[in-house]
Amino acid sequence: MAESPVPQTVPAAIAESVANSVARQVGGAAIRRSGNSMQPLNNDGVIMVVAPTKFDELKRGQTVVYKNREGRHVAHVLVAKCKKGWRVTGLNNRTHDGQGVNSENLHGVVVNAFHPVSGIGLASR
User: Fold this and answer.
1) Burial of 80 (0-12, 13-18, 19+ CB in 10 A)
2) I need a labelling partner for 48 at 20 to 30 A (CA). Which of 7, 85, 89, 107 fits?
3) Each residue of 58-67: pLDDT tens digit?
4) What is the largest CA-CA distance in the chain?
C-alpha cells in the first residue's frame, strides 16, 4: 500500500475538474471509485487518476485498475508477482481476487486520488 496515493480532500464542486486536469497531464483518465473494498485508503466516491503503465514496471503495493472477466474495471492493490501476472486484492477483502492482473487486462496505475467533500469552500485570495 506504500506505493498507493492517499486521497487529497478537495471541495466537491471542483473535484472532477481537478482530477480530469491531472489525468490530462499524465495521459490517463479520472475514474470515480464505488464500493468499499479499498477502505480505509479509498472510500466510495473517491476520484482516482489512472496513468497508463507498462506491465513490467509494476511494483508491489501499487493500486492498479484492471478489467475483470465480467468487463468491469476494478481498482485493487498489487500483492505478489506470480507466473501469470500479479495477485491483487482490495484492502478491505479477506482474500485476493480470483483473477490476477496481466499485460492484457491492465488499464493503469493510480497515481493520484481526490476525496470530494461537500461543505468546504475554495480559498479566497
Assistant:
1) exposed
2) 85
3) 999 999 999 9
4) 55
72 φ, ψ to 5°?
A: -95, 145
- 62 closest CA partner among 76, 50, 42: 76
- Please, are residues 7 and 113 in contact by the beta-carbon 8 Å criterion? yes
- pLDDT tens digits for range 61-84: 999 999 989 998 888 889 999 988
Give residue for cell 476525496.
115
Distance CA 90, CA 88 (A): 7
Nearest to 94 by CA among 109, 72, 79: 79
Residue whose entry in the numeric block shows the C-alpha cell 485570495: 125
pTM, rounded to two decimals: 0.82
In the structure grid, which three cell numbers stand for residue 87, read together? 495477485
Cell of 16: 472532477
Enumerate helices (H) and strands (E) in the chain, giving the number of each: 1, 7
- How far is CA 16 from each of CA 24, 26, 45, rounded to the nearest angstrom? 12, 15, 11
SS3 90: coil
